[in-house]
Amino acid sequence: MKPVAAAFPTARFRRVRQSPALRGLVRETLLSSDDLIWPVFVREGKGEVEPVASMPGVFRRSVDKIAEAAREAYDLGVSAICIFPYTPLEARTEDCAEAWNPDNIANRAIRAVKEAVPEMAVMTDVALDPYNINGHDGFVVDGQIVNDRTVEALVKMTLAQAEAGADIIGPSDMMDGRIGAMRGALESEGHQNVTILSYSAKYASAYYGPFRDAVGASGALTGDKKTYQMDVANSDEAMRLIQRDLNEGADMVMVKPGTPYLDICRRAKDMFGVPTFAYQVSGEYAMIKAAAQNGWIDGEKIMMESLIGFKRAGCDGVLTYFAPEAARILNT
Ligand code: PBG
Known about the structure:
alpha/beta; TIM Barrel; 12 strands; 38% helix
């Protein structure tokens, strides 16, 4: 970018800020409901809509209610949804077999949404934590999270999701070699058109706390995820991970969490120019909601400001629990 040459009063930056019309003309980024992916939590039962205490306005819904909510969100303009399971405790085991059960709660939800709203893109989560007795994203052997055996399980999970009708596979596990293995399996099993949005730069963040409550993994988790999720202090490493995942067959990449990592989003977009997403995670959502409920901030305005921030940082889209709420404001 060239520096501005003219000095005051030749240059008056306030000239183009003086009216909504002028501000609109010079606005650099736009947020549209097309940019939003809505993460939702699915639970067992029928007709169930259960609030998540640490995430006001977020619910665990049974499959029938997920399908209904997907329809409503789509009608508001949200065209993508991401399904996370709240697995019953008895289905969580050391071998995580429920993860690739074609009829597990997540796969049933994928089918129900594709049936109710075929136009909606359905994204999944690939990681063992909702099915693992110890809350980790990979198998635990002698206290270690093992990589290669976990990748084999993640591939089975991916294929079950693709067979259920998923459009976007979302590996959030941070194992090495998973993208290549998933891409290979999708190609050889007739799922060439299934896309992968890799959680490439996923940090070992404290912002995931409310999510772990939502999927019932908080109590279960032993230790932390620092041997597989990224050190929060690193940036070059994020670029290497994104490059690696693109080389292995990811169609889109993600940075997670969102707002505290906008520098990573911008750097990734500038360096690779590929479809880049951020995940505005549960802790970010909870902080905005809690402050708004206390009357300390204007929740709606902060929601919109936080979302445009992702676009300004170079993201093509954002996963956000605010998706339907924001879409309503954007489209009415
Ligand atoms: C688990 C997973 C997590 C999130 C998405 N997938 C939590 C974790 O890694 O512990 C977090 C999402 C959020 O906080 O909103 N594989």
